[in-house]
Amino acid sequence: MAVLLLGVSALARAQVAAAPPRIVQVDAVVTDSQGAPVADLAAGDFAVSEGGQPRRIVSVAYVNGPRAIAFVADNFDSVTDADVTPLVLSDFVERRMAAGDVAAILPSTEGCARLTSDKAALSATVARIRDTARVKTG
Description:
Elements: H1 2-18, E1 48-50, E2 53-55, E3 68-73, H2 84-96, E4 102-107, H3 119-137
Parallel strand pairs: 3-4
Antiparallel strand pairs: 1-2
């Protein structure tokens, strides 16, 4: 039994390692005709497509107030999406982080990260990730 589980685990790891990450967060503000927030929406109430192809919506959550968001950036061995990851993280810090939000960006090569609202500190972490990617991609 243990051998079978290890075999499945190794196969699962190989499949995950071969597939680039494709999780995208989309923030949406939905209001009714009077401008009040609509909180009882489900994945079926939305449609997302990319290049004309429908994409599966994994979850929908109503957020009321500040958010606490943590990102883990794989910069240890992978160079997949090495140029895209810093751009996405920078976009979040510079454009999508709202007043009161706190975030942590944890490169996989570092031990820990603290939640902070300090955009300069978060941007410095993104710069380290970008620099690591440049070294790996030459």
